[in-house]
Amino acid sequence: MKEKRELINTYIRANVAPILVDFLEAKDIPNSVILPADISKAELVGHYEDINYCPPSWYKELMEDKDKFVIVIDQLDSIPQDEQSKFIEIIKYKQVSTFEIPEDYRIIITVKNKKEISEEIYSLIAIM
Fold first, then answer.
1. What is the Cα–Cα distance from 46 to 118, expressed in whole angstroms?
2. Strands, sheet with 19-21, edge to edge from the N-terminal-most edge strand
3. Where are the alpha helices (DSSP H) in the chain?
4. How far apart are CA 96 and CA 79, in angstroms?
């Protein structure tokens, strides 16, 4: 387990791609904002207030708390593969709607069963 933790720290520092892990729980990842896999599309992408489009609350938290620089998509394998695509914009483009996620921010995806991840997501991530 120690070797895996050291390896994940290396991947996190390199920030080459989002990282998929099956040996950590979201609560164990420091400096993170946790997005549960079953988050609604409305909570994931933002909303209108009058005529202004506003970022989702998790994005505001990430941008306002400079100690947080990790987005954790928690238990992605707990939702159907076709529903997993709602995270593509975050994983592939590091943005949500019109709001960009800074390049130096990390994305970690937690799962229990790697085989339950869609091929599209699988092609975009580093596997631990």
1. 24
2. 32-36, 70-74, 106-110, 19-21, 126-127
3. 2-14, 41-45, 57-64, 81-84, 88-93, 119-122
4. 20
Q: Evaluate if pTM is beyond 0.85.
A: yes
Instruction: List Cα–Cα distances, 68 to 30, 33, 58, 60, in angstroms.
Output: 8, 7, 11, 11
DSSP string covering 43-67: HHH-EEETTEEE--HHHHHHHH-TT
Pairing mode, strands 99-100 and 95-96: antiparallel
24-78 pLDDT tens trace: 889 988 889 999 999 998 899 888 888 888 899 999 999 998 888 899 999 999 9
Type and span of the H or E element at 1: none
Give the DSSP letter of residue 37: T
